Amino acid sequence: MIRKVLAFETSCDDTSVSIVDYSGRVLALVSATKDLDHEPYGGIVPEIASRNHSLSLLPLTEEAFKKAQLTWSDINGIAVTNRPGLIGALIVGLVTAKSLAMSKNIPLIGVNHLEGHLLAPFLHDDQYAPSFSFTEPYLALAISGGHTSLYKVEGLGKYKILGSTKDDAAGEAFDKFAKMIGLGFPGGARVDQEAQSGDPKKYQFPRSMIHDETLDMSFSGLKSAAQRLVSDLGSETVKLNSSDLCASFQQAILDVLLSKLEKAALNTGLKKIVITGGVSANSGLRIQAEVLARAKKWTLAIPPLRFCTDNAAMIGFAGILHLQAGVRHDWSLGPSPQSWPQDFEQ
Fold it and tell me: Domain spanning 4-128+307-324 has what CATH number?
């Protein structure tokens, strides 16, 4: 039986290593974030991300073993993100995982990063336990810098995409808006912080596709409207009204996300709801989702902040479930910038 796995996540700029058991218990989770290395460029530089993964991965692995108080004899498999993501970044994690799995003669499993996010709310440790089990069908809103989609989840490997953004992801829109008004990188967290003291009704931003019958979304029009407004206001006015601008921009995104989530719940009849991905760390989203869940009598699961952003624990849990189901990958496993066709049902 596969009881414990070592997991690596290097799909973008964060380097993360975790040890997870078969129940989803996180025995160790250590990560290195290098935002300061990317900040001068206003976004993630793939070459810098890859270099940082190379420098951080093995020291983090040693730290994870120390935290969990385990040795290699306790590890039954290695899970690694191999799709989707930045190719250079994925290669670093994949080569490390392959080398260790080969040298220790233990199974290897490649994991879809997005599947990891769908399972993240079911991780648990001494401070957090999920509100319902993974075995039950649920509706998931996965929101990050690169992806914004609604899924119907019926079990391991059974993920149906109900709707997605037609252009920019919500996290990407947050980051670009932050850059427009001079908040810098990483933008999403800074917009959230500024918005907490602002008036969400001060400025009117469009809610694209909010009344559309589909569950698809769009944020490019919002981004364009924000650019025009910022240009019209001028730098001094923008600086003086930064909190109101952030609150208004953020609310436009949240209105679309929650409206589509509510519509998806009505269409599917599901009452078990998951919100996950990096943008699920947004404080306004968490508060408003909780209010909506109480009103609709949903059972809502949003992972704690440490499991929202890119982390190896979610990769480990997805990996160990697949390993227990008998799935293995050989040494020909490669990285991919996109999901595999069989990963999700359209």
Answer: 3.30.420.40
